[in-house]
Amino acid sequence: MNRRRFLTLSGVGVVGAVAGCSSEGDSAESVDSHPAAADLDAQPRRGELGGHVILAFEDPSCPTCRRFHEDTLPDIRKNIVDAGKGAYVVRTYPVIYPWGEPATQALESTFARDSEAYWSLFDHYFAEQSSFDPDNVLDRTATFLTEETAVDGEAVARDARERTHDDAVQADIQAAEDAGLGETTPIILLFEDGEFVTKVNGSVSYDLIAEALGERDG
Hints:
This protein is an alpha+beta fold. Helices cover 44% and strands 13% of the residues. Strands 1-3-2-4-5 form a 5-stranded mixed beta sheet, with helices on both faces. Helix 4 (100-113) packs antiparallel against helix 5 and helix 5 (115-127) crosses helix 6 (137-148).
């Protein structure tokens, strides 16, 4: 990262350490060694690993995560993922409202069956966020999956109630804890060509992400 870009990021209040920005040439932590990125290849993602990585810890019950999906993710998809420059990777992190935990169990169960159905359900949780609560989330999940995807919604709801895929849920939570990420979601870790740049959280714009990843240089 060059000095101009580092100063720009500092000026907009990026949270977390910016690696590789000092004149002494501090080495950056790579995506292969960062605790938040443990078992990265097994996580839901759009795009291919090997370039930039936008690693997002998100809670389906989090209103700020919903705004990130509405306002920022489309530009990530267009300018990073679809352009072949990197990957957007999700780790679910249920720390906001109580219905987020069973929803996360359902997401992991869905991902184990069908990755495209996972993304459909993830989008559905944000689109209909205000309609969910701990009492109805799994019934509504089952209905959505059965009507809108090829996945057996009742089987997913049963898995979620029985916490069949809790190992995957706990692995995401453990990765966040190991990295000391806190609980202000969304938490976005940015890796420029595999090297850690910074962590940002809360309201995150695409302009900030593009600046951090060197996509606005020139």
